Automatic annotation (TrEMBL):
InterPro entries recorded: LppM
Entry keyword set: Membrane, Signal, Transmembrane, Transmembrane helix
Signal peptide interval: 1-37
Protein known as: LppM domain-containing protein
A Pfam cross-reference name: LppM
Organism placement in taxonomy: Bacteria, Bacillati, Actinomycetota, Actinomycetes, Pseudonocardiales
Keyword DNA damage found: no
Spans through the membrane: 195-216
Keyword Transmembrane belongs to the record: yes
Domain LppM, chain residue ranges per copy: 34-184
Top-level taxonomic group: Bacteria
């Protein structure tokens, strides 16, 4: 009789433990993600702004997703704890990152490289391209927004352009690619176009100077040939 009483209690405890573990697994697999990026590109080809990467807390001391900041960017990239609306994670602040440094941060920040972005200049055109991988996130479990303010004139983009600020809202369950091409001259130094103009103008100036000297020398030769020879007196 005593043994029969303990079996239901033991079975109940096992079911309670199973339900607790199932609930924890469900929260883990639900993939509640918040990614909010607000970046500003300056006309000297540097990028500043903030990036929030967070997930819904599933336990008391949850700190959100693990992020990696390359050591060489420590002086330009700062992180702080983010907590809001049940989400926990980090806010990453960027200060005047060059285009190669943005790529370096993007490649290193998460192990799975779910978030990628890069900038590339060709003459006066700068192209931004990137992707957000939300293929493992259920459709109702993501809050993802990307906004980038660009200098110059936006030539083309697959986002929504509002007076130079382009925004995207990647959809859960898919991999979203985003891009924008903007036209502006490089203010960090003499641009390639300006350099070609300066070199071309210098070459033309040198050619004109050589031509002028050649004409002057030729005229002197003609005058010397036209003058009668001087007679000699003995």
């Amino acid at each position: 009789m005593h043994q029969a009483t303990r079996k239901p209690i033991h079975r109940f405890r096992r079911w309670a433990a199973f339900l607790a573990l199932s609930s924890l697994a469900l929260l883990t697999l639900s993939g509640c993600v918040r990614v909010q990026a607000a970046l500003v590109v300056s006309d000297n080809d540097t990028v500043s702004g903030q990036l929030v990467v967070a997930t819904v807390a599933i336990k008391q001391d949850d700190s959100g997703p693990a992020l990696t900041i390359p050591p060489e960017l420590r002086g330009k990239v700062r992180t702080q704890v983010y907590t809001a609306d049940g989400y926990v994670g980090q806010t990453i602040s960027l200060q005047s990152l060059t285009f190669p440094e943005v790529t370096l941060l993007s490649d290193a920040i998460t192990v799975g490289k779910q978030y990628r972005v890069s900038f590339r200049r060709a003459g006066n055109l700068v192209t931004m391209a990137g992707s957000v991988d939300l293929s493992e996130v259920p459709k109702d479990r993501a809050d993802v927004q990307i906004k980038v303010t660009l200098p110059g004139t936006v030539k083309r983009t697959n986002g929504v352009n509002d007076n130079g600020t382009v925004s995207w809202k990647p959809k859960p369950g898919t991999v979203t690619e985003f891009n924008a091409t903007v036209e502006y001259s490089d203010q960090s130094g003499v641009s390639w176009t300006k350099w070609v103009t300066i070199v071309g103008a210098s070459a033309i100036g040198v050619a004109l100077l050589v031509l002028a000297l050649a004409l002057y020398s030729h005229k002197r030769s003609l005058r010397a040939a036209a003058e009668p020879p001087k007679s000699s007196h003995f």
